[in-house]
Structures are given as C-alpha cells and as structure tokens.
Structures
1.
Amino acid sequence: MSNIENFSTHEPLTIQKNEEIQKTALQAALIDSKKSALQKYQDFAVGSSKLSALLKYEILTGIFGPIPGALGLVLRKRFYKSLFGSIGRGVVFGKSITIRHPHKIHIGENVIIDDYAVLDAKGTDNQGITIGNNVMIGRNSVISCKNGDITIGDNTNIAMNCFIQSAKTVHIGANVLIAPYCYVIGGGDHETVRTDIPIIAQGQIVKGIIIEDNCWLGADVKVLDGIKIERDSIIGTGAVVTKSLPEFNVAVGIPAKVIKIRKNG
C-alpha cells in the first residue's frame, strides 16, 4: 500500500454540538446568515455600514487604483486623501494597492507605498495601522491587522514581499531596515492541548511583537509572536527569531542565536 493510501486511514476529528470554533467579532459578522453579501463586503473591506462610505471606497479605489504611470500617481495623491483617517503631505501610492478599513489607517509625510502593497486595518475594536514619516513599504508587501494594531516608526524601510500581521500589537520602531521576504507574525499561535477536537476550535494565543529603533532584519527573517528585539540589533538572513534579543546584538540561525554584541567590537 502506498504512503498516499496510508495517509487517509484515520477518522477525521469532528466538532461536537457543545463545542464551538472561537471567532473574532469580524469573523462572526462575516458568517452571519442574516447579513447580505453586500453587508459582509462592507464589514470586510470598508469597515462601515454607511452607503456613502461604500460608494466613496468603490469609486476611488476602483477608478484610480489600477491606473499606471505618472497619471495614476497624481490622481491617487489627489483623491485618496479622503479615504484615510489622516494623511500627511507628499505621500505616494503605487497602483493596485489593496486598502481595507481605510478610516483606521494613519499615514505620515513623504511615505511611499509601492505597487500591489496591502494596507489592511480590519477589525471591530482595534486602532488599526499608524505609519510614521519617510517610510517606504515595498511592492507586494502586506501590512495586515487581525483586530490588532500595527505602528511603524519614522524613516523605516520595509522591502518587497514582506508580511507583517498583528492580532494584538506589532510595533516597529524608527530607522528600521526590513529586507525582502521577512515575516513578522504578531499572533496566530493556536492552543493545541486537546486532541479530541480540531486545533481550529481551541482558540489562539496572542502576545505581540516589538522591534525597537535602528534594527536591521536581513532577507527571509521570521519573527514569531511574543518577541522583543531591542535597539540596534542585526538579524542575519534566513534566521527564525523564537526568543527576545538584547540591544546591539547580531543573531543568526534557526533558531536565532546571538553571535556578537556590537558594542563590544
């Protein structure tokens, strides 16, 4: 018998009537059978039940979002301002950016959001996303709230294809360099104690992440929930950070281990 045939011999676990998959308020709203598909879309994308908010969101993102080149940049700079909670001067929006719950997104001055990036502030009672001045968010990078909050300090550069998610709080300080393909996951760990019900029904553990000022994360670094990386740290390419790290450290490997303290030369 092949390994593939052996793989499916166990009976699947089922959720009993007295068990319930733990859901966020937003998840509950999205599966509410009493709501129409349009209402669910508003909950998910717009974050408002007002028809005026939906129309503004659809018109601005639908018409101006996909326009390439200089014309698109000029039009988005002119018209996107009214979508956001607050926005500074000199902000540049690339084409085909995904924006969710824009009224909970606050952007400083001289920020660049590259093509196909995602700014997702969705949640029912969170503060959303706050981006400081002179920040760069690279192409295809995702900044995503799962009812959590994300703050990004001044002069921070997040390169292409990064994924930053918060189910509680993720704070990235000022002057931080985050190279391509990095993952910063604030939340998403699951309870696994019980074996009689699926993991999805056991709830999540959320702690949050802090990356202090002046840090540098090399390409393909993963930072797990509950981690604090103190100021002026360097994390080597491909490292997986599973424990908090002290200031001025250089850490590499899986799991990341400190190999040098920069103050010591």
2.
Amino acid sequence: MQIGIIGLGAMGAGVARNLLKGGHDVVVWNRSPQAVETLVAEGARRADTPGGAFDAEIVFSMLAQDETIEEVVVASGALDAARKGVVHVNLSTVSVAFADRMEALHAEKGLAYVAAPVLGRPDVAAAGQLNVLCAGDPAAVAKVTPLIELFAKQVWPFGDKASRANVVKLAVNFSLASMIETLGEAGALADAYGVEPAALYEVMTGTLFAAPAYKTYSALIADARFEPAGFKLPLGLKDVRLALAAGEAQSTPLPIASVLRDAFIEAIAAGDGAKDWSALAAGAFRRSARKLG
C-alpha cells in the first residue's frame, strides 16, 4: 500500500521505519531535509511537498502543534492536492477545537480524517510498541488499523468523533505531568531529610507505584537524565495548556493543571527549555535550594 508520512521527528521516523518494515511503499516529507535523506536511504521515497505525501492511499502526520499542522497540511494546499478517497491519520497531540475543525474540513473536501494520538516515547515508537488512541469514521478506522498495528502494541478505540481520542490523550498527558511534578516534590522532601531520591523511588516503584510510567520517569529524575530530550518541556507546557482549554470549554476546572502550567513556565525560565519534560521535577529541588542529581 502507498503511504504518505508527514513529520519525521523522533516519533514520526519510528513510525515510518515500522511501516517500511511492513513492506509498504512509504513516501516521506519533512521540513528538515536530513531526516528525509535518512529515510530515503532506508527505502522510503521522497515527497517534494506536503501535497506530494497526500498523493497516497493513507497519510500519517506527526507534527508538533496545531499551528504547524495548519501551515503544513492546510495552508500549503496539501488537502486540496490529496488523492480522492485518502484517509488522513493525525498522530499528533492537538487541541480539541482543532481536531473538530480538521474533521469538518476533511469532510468538506470528501476526505476521511482519523485522530490517532500516541502514548509512548521515541524508543517505544522505534520498537513498534506504541499505544494508539483512535477515533473517527468507522470505515476509515477499520482501513487504517492494520497499518497502525505495525507500530502499535495496542489500538484503543474511542468511537466515531475524532476529537474524543484527543481528549483522552490530553487527559493522559495531564496525568503524566502531575506524576512528574509529584515525583519531584516527594523526592525533594526525602532529600531534605537525608534520604536519596533514588531510594524513595525504588520503594515506590517496587510497591504501590509499580507502573511503567513511574519506573521510567523516576529513573530519569533520580539520575537527572534530562538530555537528550524524548519530549521537551515546552511541549509539556503546550499539552497542559490544551487540557486547560478543553476543561474550560466544558466548564470543567482543572486546578492542578493550573499549578502545572506555572511549574512548566518556571522550569523554562530557569533555562531547562531544551530538556526532557521530566526536568519539571527539578523545580521542586530548586524551590528548596537543593540540586537534583
């Protein structure tokens, strides 16, 4: 099957490689040409424009934010150039309002739109073990699911309204950000009394908090291993802001998200903007005049 891929960052490149391994004809576009050349060397074909990637049966996009998708997919004319009957699968984390707009815009143009935001870091994408939250037209979802399964551990269906998948992704990322902040605060408390944060985290992940996310992030925090970033702090701030906007739209207050927003702003102001979002935890140590790591 001919598949277009738009966006070859750490996550998109992992998706593209797994689709290539599945034996598909993969056409790739990315703003940075080096990422394209790397994938071409591995068997993909180059699209000169985003519209070229939309000359396919299925198109996957993995871009950073609403504004980037608007520019690359809509303003560029890529949707207007799309092959008849194409299904666009948006793997990005976007706002609920933008997801609704994209679904309506695709429908106006006779195209199918599926929201499929992913759970997992770049190494998980490369291993083909992502969890994918999927929603949209049932026929379109059924068509793309076998392809998603090439880079997914599990596909989680959320019905025929695309933005529901995005709501779930925002709720999950909000919860992850809350976890990172509380791991930092708990670690700072232990450190204040002479207990190594790593020792605290070992107890937590060996008993009541034996979940993959707690194990992954507590190890990063204990070692202050924030570079290279798998997911940068400004993207975490973006997702918390999107969660707050989604909550406000439905009169659903998220007071902890408001605290997290300020914590992200503080971390970025402290010079950690290029670091992994797990560096959010370092703020708890900074506030008590301690240093993590």
